[in-house]
Amino acid sequence: MARAPLRPVPGPAEPIGDAAAVALVGAALPSLAEPDRTALALVALAGRPRGQVALRLGVTGPELAERLAQARKQLRRSVAALGGSGWCEHAERLISDRMDGVLADADERRLDIHLRNCPRCVEHERRLVQATDALVSGFPVVPAAASLAARRPPAATPAATDTAPPALPLPLTWAVVIVVALLLAVAALALVLAGAL
């Protein structure tokens, strides 16, 4: 299976302060544990280098890498639940490292081989980029349940299956847009009827 390289995950258009980044991740992923929330916020949104974040959290580089991989898995789960094997778990960690530009060349080759043979991990990477884009934009992702169910591969084993959190409600912005669109449609209909009389 050929794999097209994904585009780089963009950072925020404007710099985000540390506290605002942590608050944004906390709002998007309320069940994420505090150290993982801070790690994801500082690296993915505030743009802090991994080494600086590891010192700030008092953890080693590998511990921070694991926290980021788990936080990104939770972020991806906000879009889609996927089954997987033990190697898929390892691949998720490598994908997280690649997103931060810290993946070693040998691991890059191993990951590329795995992705050529594992549609599940390709879908994980695709969904993670989608969820990260939404997080950077400040809006939660609301997946279409039917399209997710159609795309979700069967789980390998019950123990290896992700559990998706409940769907997030529509952002307030979309609710306002929908109400305004309905009001405009009613006004247009009233004008057409008034013109006919």
N/C terminus separation: 64 Å
Largest sheet: none
Radius of gyration: 20 Å
Percent of sequence in beta strands: under 5%
Q: Can you describe what's shown?
A:
The protein is mainly α and 197 residues long. It has 2 domains: 18-166, no CATH class; 168-197. The protein has 9 helices and no strands. Helix 5 (86-99) packs across helix 7 (119-137) and helix 6 packs across helix 7 (119-137). The N and C termini lie far apart (64 Å). Mean pLDDT is 76; it is low at 1-5, 139-161 and 164-172.
TL;DR of this structure?
This protein has helices spanning 18-28, 34-45, 50-57, 61-77, 86-99, 105-117, 119-137, 145-151, 172-196. It has 197 residues and is mostly helical.
Describe this protein with a few key phrases:
197 residues; 2 domains; disordered N terminus; mainly alpha; single chain
Topology of helices and strands:
Elements lengths: L17 H11 L5 H12 L4 H8 L3 H17 L8 H14 L5 H13 L1 H19 L7 H7 L20 H25 L1
